[in-house]
Amino acid sequence: MVELLIKNELTPLDLMKKLNKPILAVWKRVNDMENAGIIKFVRQKKKIGGPVLRIYRSSAVIFIDEDFSFLNGSIIPVASVWKDLNREIFKYIDDNNEIPNGIDPIDYASLVFIKSLKIVMSKPDEILRKLSMLEESAEKGIKDIKMKGQ
User: What's the pLDDT at 104?
Assistant: First the structure.
């Protein structure tokens, strides 16, 4: 549903048709996502003699869930780079997840996390090469745009 609302402004009725789900299930999900700030109401439309329809869209173009995976089908290559980086980080964390006796758990956890980041960041050329290729690909469809933070 989020992917559809990233790419389109849709009513719950549109979502029901595209997803082949019952309207009540769609309404509940739309309401939950609006309350969570994932989607937002953009405007109403009214057909002559018909009900007023609320139109929604995504409140952002990229969402990252609790597993650090992207919820946007249009950036799957970016998600694969992100997942590769996280896989390396969490592999090191998993390999060193047992706290030695007599060691402060917070200090140990911080050290393990810092070392896992250092391992990933020790390959900046590889990471930058992958990201540059993805950036070039993404920029082909976007001209003359100034992004914040550049």
Answer: 82
